From TrEMBL:
Protein name, entry field: Nitrogenase iron-molybdenum cofactor biosynthesis protein NifE
Domain Nitrogenase/oxidoreductase component residue range list: 54-451
PROSITE patterns from the UniProt entry: NITROGENASE_1_1, NITROGENASE_1_2
The keyword Phosphoprotein is annotated on this UniProt entry: no
Pathway: Cofactor biosynthesis; Fe-Mo cofactor biosynthesis
């Protein structure tokens, strides 16, 4: 076996070049160089300035898009500011989620406790905004001083007549993935508290999509054309009443498995609701997801498979001619991917292949050993796979692999800009829908515009490629 720590491997040589700390070397692997034996889902290494966020942030990104709920951060103002409007999650109605509320704990509150301050804040905010429910997020300082969020929330729920739900998301409890679990536990308190009389036998919940740039509306449109009712969006463009009756749906569709898979498992255990892992990014994954849903409901509606085939044919007939010119320009260019959940990376690798590009670096914040093993099977030999990277590591590999475009989120954008590399925002703040067949074209067009911009001719590190005809505009 050739591991990331063996002194004779290429991977180790590159790790040494990157000045990786010893504790980090097991979290880097090169595809094709021995079995995947990555140490992942670890606590982020102190001093390494990980791209990964904390438990509190993980819970906020999941629950934040529930648009008619009140979201109150019980802690210092910095925690609320850090996660204010953290996702570009659009709403078709209420926008209470766009506001950032905090109890703004001060030194006196740390000494004497913040429960009275929390109760007063809830009392005022619920009367002022009339939300359908309230989520109260615990932060590190609250966990340290011992405020009883549960007791305060129960009293306010009885007083106001709405669910007031504590989110046990103290940042020091672990990593971002623990925040996903805290969010799912909070949401599960709503599930099963409303009647399901109006729910169709052909019905689904959409889990793990946050309606960035309106993507959930694209997916809902496909499902509705297939004849399927969407009961609840969890959580993009989400509504409290829909979540309360979502246990009546016949199937859960789980995208970005790291964020809402726990909720799907809870619903499976208590209500028997089956779930499918799906992806709406790229041509194959979008089509495969729709076909999987159709096959699940074929016994209930025999015509659903043919309707789905017609839908996919129609969409591909419009899409494929639009990709040809883009593919001709991008053929052979190199891409780097760093995303929150590794499940997204599978779809992105396939999407890049459709436009002729090679993925040479792929990583995630919250991937598991099993996901990385599966990821290696779709990577080209030599592709660097990295878990919980820090900026120095990402910068090193982007330079070493001579990347043309970097796909990431807000924290990766400065890395690309400083290194003179095209950037495609795939995470929280993007304004372009990348889901579905329509999103595939948007993705290809954005990558093309970034990679082919003539500005890269003036980047010093690209001078060595200037003479090559295929890279003249890269």
């Amino acid at each position: 076996m050739t591991t990331a720590t063996a002194p004779t491997t290429t991977a180790t040589a590159e790790c040494r070049d990157a000045d990786l700390l010893d504790e980090r070397k097991k979290q880097v692997h090169r595809a094709g160089q021995g079995p995947v034996d990555m140490a992942c889902n670890r606590e982020s290494l102190a001093g390494a300035v990980s791209q990964r966020a904390c438990v509190f942030c993980g819970s906020r990104v999941v629950l934040y898009p529930i648009a008619d709920a009140l979201h109150l951060v019980h802690g210092p103002i910095g925690c609320a500011a850090y996660t204010w409007d953290i996702r570009g999650a659009l709403s078709s109605g209420p926008e209470l989620h766009r506001l950032s509320f905090s109890t703004d704990l001060q030194e006196k509150d740390v000494i004497f406790g913040g429960e009275k301050k929390l109760a007063a804040a809830l009392d005022e905010l619920i009367d002022l905004h009339q939300p359908k429910a309230a989520f109260v997020y615990s932060t590190c300082i609250v966990g340290l001083i011992g405020d009883d969020l549960g007791a305060v929330c129960r009293k306010m729920s009885e007083k106001k007549g709405i669910p007031v739900i504590p989110v046990q998301s103290e940042g020091f409890k672990g990593n971002k993935r623990e925040g996903y679990l805290a969010a799912c536990k909070a949401m599960f308190q709503l599930v099963g508290t409303a009647p399901t009389d109006s729910v169709s036998p052909l019905s689904v919940n959409i889990l793990g999509d946050f309606n960035l740039a309106g993507e959930i509306w694209i997916v809902r449109g496909y499902l509705e054309r297939m004849g399927i009712q969407v009961v609840a969006n969890i959580t993009g463009d989400g509504r409290v009443d829909d979540i309360r009756r979502c246990h009546g749906a016949a199937l859960n569709l789980v995208q970005c498995s790291g964020s809402t898979l726990d909720l799907a498992r809870m619903m499976k255990e208590k209500y028997g609701t089956p779930h499918l892992r799906v992806s709406y990014l790229g041509i194959e994954d979008m089509a495969d997801s729709l076909y999987a849903v159709a096959e699940h409901f074929e016994s209930v509606d025999p015509g659903i498979v043919e309707r789905t085939r017609d839908l996919v044919r129609e969409e591909l007939a419009a899409l494929m001619p639009r990709l040809r010119d883009i593919r001709r320009d991008l053929s052979g260019k190199r891409a780097a991917i760093y995303v929150g959940g590794s499940f997204k990376a599978f779809s992105l690798i396939k999407a890049f292949r459709h436009i002729g590009m090679n993925v040479v670096l792929v990583g995630s914040q919250t991937g598991t050993q099993e996901e990385y093993q599966e990821l290696e099977t779709v990577c080209d030999p030599g592709t660097v796979i990295i878990d919980d990277a820090n900026p120095l590591e990402l910068s090193h590999y982007v330079r070493e692999l001579d990347v043309d475009v970097f796909v990431g989120g807000v924290k990766e954008r400065p890395i690309a800009h400083k290194l003179g590399v095209g950037f495609c925002d795939h995470n929280h703040e993007r304004k372009i829908a990348l889901a579905g067949f329509e999103g595939m074209y948007n993705f290809a067009r954005e990558v093309h515009a970034s990679v082919m911009s003539p500005v890269w001719r003036f980047v010093p590190r690209r001078s060595k490629r200037a003479a090559a005809p295929s890279g003249a505009d890269a």
